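Hi team,

Filling in the usual template for the complex we talked about on Friday. All components are listed, including any nucleic acid strands or ligand strings, so the model treats them as one assembly.

SUBMITTER: L.P.
PURPOSE: interface mapping
COMPONENTS: two
RESIDUES: 595
SEQUENCES:
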Amino acid sequence: MSAVVAVPSVRSGVTIRRADRRLGVLMLAPAVVYITLLVALPFLLALFLSLTNSSAGSLDFSFVGLRNFRSVVANPLFQRSLRNTFVFTFVSQLAVIVMGNVLARALMKTFRGKAIARFLILMPWAAPISLATLGWLWIFDSTFSVINWVLKVAGWLGPRDWYYWLGDTTLAMVAIITIHVWRMLPFSTIILLAGLTSIPNEVREAAAIDGAGTLSRIFRVELPMMRPILTVAVLFGVVFTFTDMSVVYLLTRGGPFNSTHVLASLAFQEGVLGGDVGRGASVAIFLVPVLLVLAIVMLRSARTAEVV
Amino acid sequence: MPARAPARRAAEAVVHRATILFFIAFAVFPFYWMVVTSFKQNADLYVGATNTAHNPFIFNLPPTLDHLRLLFGQTLYLTWLRNTLFVGLVVVAATLVLAVPAGYSLARLTGRWGERLSIGIFLTYLVPSTLLFIPFSRLVSLLGLQNSLWALVLIYPTFTVPFCTWLLMGFFKSLPKEIEESAMVDGCSRAGAIWRMVLPLSVPGLLTVVIFALTLVIQEFVYSLTFISSVERMTVSVGVPVALVRGDVYYWGSLMAACLVTSVPISILYNFFLDRFIAGFTVGAIK
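RESULT (copied from the run log):
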């Protein structure tokens, strides 16, 4: 696995000639201008819009200060969405990291059909999320759910029992978390696998010679050594799950009774479907603090990696 | 102890195999279910899970191509594919134009401040579509691009350019500097050396970026849902879940066929380039 990309040598800056430096600026400019105009400015515009009463119909708006935020925060639907966003992210990422470690360990060994196994395990990550969610929508169908069929045959569901997967608040949350786990597991597994592969065999042997058992080797030696890579896996997993709206939007539309909305889907409902851009923006803004924290953690881990 | 060792090894092998099989089943089941649904006759498909005598995992009646015929003949699926490919190709071209020079510049020409800038560019990849679609809706209506594929062409590079720049930077750094230096000693300009020596050697890196950008475009859902309203202009990822459902009636056979036909080629493509994508995510975290 070509997981190791040359770690940049910072010192190279010293020998860059002046003509090259000018060319460098010239080559970098289009991308930087584009990113500034279409990521940085819109980001600031989102902050600005959250302070206005602008709506989808017209381009006129006036400044309303923190009114959007006050009304949004007081809304029980928002509070529920905020909680859901954290619950979905936390539970699914916890499951992903535990399962990802188990799976990555299993994939470390050589066995027949390993390439095919890896391909199959990775499929959920490559498939378009909206289409994969549609597949799950059919699996969780209220009348034809294959899960219910299996539970019936297994005797778990009695003759009068029935699971309405997407019609029951708890079950709908289970369904949403299942999809997040299903989708993110391949991604984290492959990253963790790269981390495991990078631990030299001598370390394992040394631990064995020192009398460490398998478990204490995993928890005392390997996991600490994999901390940077675990951080990467968790960070990206959190970013992708925390900001996602496709799963909720396509699976439950936030239902039943608006009980499964997340910040992103609520922002979409208010800002796009409801046409209240200001309110939608102020809901979405609540994603920012978490993303900011993640960015800082990422920067710090990037810095330590540079120092090492 | 020695007597127990073979038994223990056998047990470990069984556990290992069971683990792998469990995870494969979990990962693949929705796709298996798409296959079964796509080819089942309606009488076999819509039986209801209360009937325990009817095994839904197998074909109880002979398979049929009806759902595929409906999908390709009577829906706009092919139009959506065409729209997606159009947006995909234009976005890939735009991404290459922006990210290749930027990646090279960050790898070779900018030194210490480039290092900082590259991390900044990477961080913009974290700004989610679910935050930006609101300001973009202003921008799109200002430019009069509502319900136009050009809106997607304008916006999609916001997520392809940062990551692709980062990937390419890593790739260019892994090439030996002597390539350009020897060409420049032979009288080439820096630009000439890049064009004649570096780019031909970078084909694998460029290909990775093309595939990555293309798959990201095909997977994108939020912007497409927000900015495209008429059915014949939708992309696959939105057209199938939003417009293939007529009223409250779900044509599950055709729906699952659409999911399958779209997902499998992408998965195969993606698999070939996976190691490189992962390398992009983990730069710095693995020594």
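MY TAKE: Chain A touches chain B through 119 residues (CB under 8 Å). Confidence is low (pLDDT under 50) at residues 1-14 of chain A.

Thanks, L.
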